[in-house]
Structure formats: structure tokens, C-alpha cells
């Protein structure tokens, strides 16, 4: 959690810095009265780096992935629940007395 | 539904609790969540919590559901005194509760006084005519008395109102199977597969019913459902693998003479046989010879 979270924060900071540099660059262009052709190199690098860091953090911080395969150990059903709402009591267990006599003491 | 991971966890906790390693409350919670029937253990460990004032008070309001769980388990183990005591405690706490009323009805059932239980349920149903549990208990009363046609009638009436209740469909299917009314049981399993298509055990049960019915068409359909079970379980269901082998050999016997068997179904049965052999080699090497002779008698491998 700790490392992933720090990396995520770092990614967001880098993205924010890229936005700030873009605004500054546009201001600069206006002053120098030049046409916008393409963003400066450092902004592109920052954007890519920010994207990778944020994505890595988003994939690791929230937790593990669950399996979607029906035959994985987490999803494979091995038995149905005992139908407890239809439970009946006159079964074989009746003739076997319980080992120790149990009592509710209050 | 109990998945493999949950089953392992349950067995681990049960072992731990039985050997005095603690964790009784977690075990009881898991039993309740998975709806498995382990009444003797629930009674033993639940009572040990309830009889210990310190552990009891640590549970807070959860203690009342524990009383209910222990009461039901006690009835299943025929410790009717314990059940009676638990219900008394609950009644003192919740004097007007319907849920406690239901428990009293179940206690009457456990004592075998069917008429009184029936009367208790009818009076509870008057207040709340759409309580599914009460309707289900009526089915259980009929079943406990051995009155299967009555149970079927009640269940059909119940399913007309609560069509989406798959537990009830399953119960109906099991009653039909126990009465050897396989066509009706097959209908119920179809309904179950429609409502929960990802549960391999319904596919398996449906295939079993079709195989029991017999006939070429049914056998071929049964094979398909065994195959879908294998698909859903990743080949870890031994019964489905055996089902494929049995279906194949039965169809081969039926179509003897008119030998129009296609290559694909032959492949399937050899694959199933090979998977079985691999499983046995891994988990029970000493039974391997029994398996190979069985497969040989089915003319597979």
C-alpha cells in the first residue's frame, strides 16, 4: 500500500506539473507571437511518465485481482449448501445419543 | 454455494476448533454463511461460547443469532432440552417476535407433534401470508411424515408464488428423484440451470437424471451436460468424467450394428478416460488397476 500510494501521488504531481508547463508554454508563445506547432519535449515526457506511474499505482493500490475463471479455486463450486430451510429432524441421528449431555447453563 | 477455497477454509477452521485452537466464533459464522449442516459441531462449540459469560458478552447483539443457530442445531441433534432453553431465552428477549415463533414451531416438529406445529404455522401465516420460510416448513412437515405427494403439492403451490426460489426447485427435484419420477425431476433441473447457469453441480445432476432415463437422445444430451460440467470445473469433477465414459459406452451399445459414430465423440471418451487415469495416478495410485479394468470393460482405452 505505502509504496504504491507514494508512486500514485508522484504520478499525479508529474501530471499537474505537465499541465502547468503547458500553460506557461502557451503564454510564452503568445508573447513571442509564434504559431503552436507541437508541445515541447519535456511536457510529452512528463505526460508519459505520469501515465505509467498513475496506471501502475491504480493497478496495485486497490488490492489483488480476483479470478474470473469458473474453474479457479475461488470460483469452483464443490458442494451445494444443505437445504436448511427444508431441514427435517427424524433422521438416523435420532437413535445416536450425543456423547456428553449438554446443557445451557445460566 | 460452497467454493473450493471456502471448503478448505471451513475444514481448516473445523480442525483448529476441534483441537482446541480457538476460533470457534469464526467457525460458527462461516458455517452460517455457507449454510452447511454441521449440527453436532455447532451445538458443541456454540454451547461452549454460550455457557461462558465472558465470551457471550463479548459478542454483543450477535449473541441472539447464536442462540438461534444453536437452538436449530440442538433440534437436529435431538437435544430438545437445550433447544427449549435457548428458545426460552430468546422469547424473554423478543416476546412478540415472529422469528422466535417460527423456532417454536420447529421445536414442535422436532418433538414430532405435527398437528400442533401445523397449527402454529397456520396462525403465523395469518399475520404474514407471504413468509417463504413458513411455507417451506409446511413442506418439511409433510416430508418428515413420509407424505411425499403432499410435500410435492405444497411445493408446487409455493413455487407458483415464488418462482425464483432455486432452493425450492432443488428440493422438488430431489423429492422427484427419490420417488423415481425422473421426467419431472429433469424439468426442475432445467429450471435450475436456466436460473443459475454457472453452477456445475446442477448440470451434473441434470445429466445424471437424463442418463438414468435412458434412450439414445437422452444419453446424448446427458453427455453434453457432463461435458459442460467438465468445462465449468476445469476437469476436476471425477463424476462428470465417469459420466462421459458411461454415456459413451451406453450409446455405443445402443447404436451397435448401425455404426455411425463420429470421430469427435470417440475422441471425447478417450480424453475423459485419460483424464481419469491421470487423476487416479495423482491421488490414488493403488486404485489405478481397478480404474483401468473398469474402463476396459466399458471399451475405453
Low-confidence stretches of chain A: none
Q: What structural class do you assign from the helix and strand content of chain B?
A: mainly alpha
Content of β-strand of chain A? under 5%
Largest sheet of chain A: none
Q: Helix segment count of chain A?
A: 2
Largest interface: A-B, 30 and 52 residues
Coarse shape of chain B = globular
Radius of gyration of chain B: 24 Å
Distance between the termini of chain A: 47 Å
Mean pLDDT over the residues of chain A? 86
Overall pLDDT level of chain B: 91
Distance between the termini of chain B: 35 Å
Question: Care to describe what's here?
Answer:
Chain B: This is ER membrane protein complex subunit 2. Chain B: It comes from Melia azedarach. Chain A: This is Membrane magnesium transporter. The complex is a heterodimer of chains A (106) and B (301). Chain A has 106 residues and is mostly helical. Chain A is built from 2 helices and 1 strand; from the N terminus they run H-H-E. In chain A, helix 1 runs antiparallel to helix 2. The longest helix of chain A is centred in the N-terminal third of the chain and has 31 residues. Chain A is rod-shaped. The two termini of chain A are 47 Å apart. The mean pLDDT of chain A is 86. Chain B is mainly α and 301 residues long. Chain B is 78% helix and 1% strand. Chain B is globular, with a radius of gyration of 24 Å.
Amino acid at each position: 500500500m505505502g509504496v504504491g500510494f507514494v508512486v500514485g501521488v508522484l504520478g499525479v504531481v508529474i501530471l499537474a506539473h505537465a499541465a502547468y508547463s503547458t500553460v506557461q508554454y502557451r503564454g510564452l508563445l503568445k508573447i513571442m507571437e509564434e504559431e503552436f506547432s507541437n508541445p515541447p519535449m519535456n511536457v510529452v515526457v512528463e505526460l508519459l511518465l505520469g501515465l505509467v506511474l498513475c496506471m501502475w499505482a491504480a493497478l496495485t493500490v486497490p488490492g489483488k485481482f480476483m479470478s474470473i475463471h469458473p474453474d479457479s479455486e475461488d470460483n469452483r463450486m464443490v458442494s451445494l449448501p444443505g437445504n436448511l430451510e427444508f431441514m427435517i429432524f427424524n433422521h438416523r441421528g435420532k437413535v445416536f445419543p450425543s456423547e456428553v449431555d449438554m446443557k445451557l447453563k445460566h | 454455494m460452497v467454493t473450493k477455497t471456502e471448503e478448505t477454509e471451513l475444514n481448516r477452521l473445523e480442525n483448529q476448533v476441534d483441537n482446541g485452537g480457538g476460533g470457534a466464533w469464526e467457525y460458527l459464522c462461516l458455517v452460517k454463511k455457507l449454510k452447511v449442516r454441521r449440527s453436532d459441531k455447532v451445538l458443541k462449540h456454540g454451547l461452549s461460547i454460550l455457557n461462558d459469560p465472558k465470551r457471550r458478552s463479548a459478542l454483543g447483539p450477535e449473541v441472539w443469532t447464536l442462540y438461534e443457530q444453536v437452538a436449530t442445531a440442538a433440534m437436529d441433534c435431538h437435544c430438545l432440552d437445550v433447544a427449549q432453553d435457548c428458545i426460552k431465552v430468546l422469547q424473554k428477549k423478543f416476546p412478540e417476535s415472529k422469528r422466535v415463533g417460527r423456532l417454536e414451531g420447529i421445536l414442535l416438529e422436532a418433538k414430532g407433534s405435527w398437528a400442533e406445529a401445523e397449527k402454529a404455522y397456520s396462525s403465523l401465516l395469518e399475520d404474514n401470508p407471504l413468509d417463504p420460510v413458513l411455507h417451506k416448513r409446511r413442506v418439511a412437515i409433510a416430508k418428515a411424515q413420509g407424505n411425499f405427494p403432499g410435500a410435492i403439492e405444497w411445493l408446487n403451490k409455493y413455487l407458483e408464488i415464488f418462482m425464483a426460489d432455486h432452493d425450492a426447485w432443488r428440493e422438488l427435484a430431489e423429492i422427484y428423484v427419490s420417488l423415481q419420477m425422473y421426467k419431472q425431476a429433469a424439468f426442475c433441473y432445467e429450471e435450475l440451470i436456466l436460473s443459475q447457469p454457472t453452477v456445475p453441480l446442477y448440470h451434473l445432476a441434470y445429466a445424471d437424471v437424463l442418463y438414468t432415463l435412458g434412450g439414445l437422445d437422452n444419453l446424448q444430451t446427458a453427455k453434453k451436460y457432463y461435458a459442460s460440467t467438465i468445462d465449468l470445473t476445469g476437469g476436476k469433477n471425477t463424476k462428470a468424467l465417469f459420466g462421459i465414459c458411461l454415456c459413451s459406452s451406453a450409446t455405443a451399445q445402443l447404436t451397435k450394428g448401425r455404426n455411425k459414430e463420429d470421430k469427435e465423440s470417440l475422441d471425447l471418451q478417450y480424453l475423459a478416460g485419460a483424464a481419469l487415469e491421470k487423476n487416479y495416478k495423482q491421488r490414488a495410485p493403488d486404485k489405478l488397476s481397478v480404474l483401468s479394468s473398469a474402463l476396459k470393460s466399458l471399451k475405453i482405452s
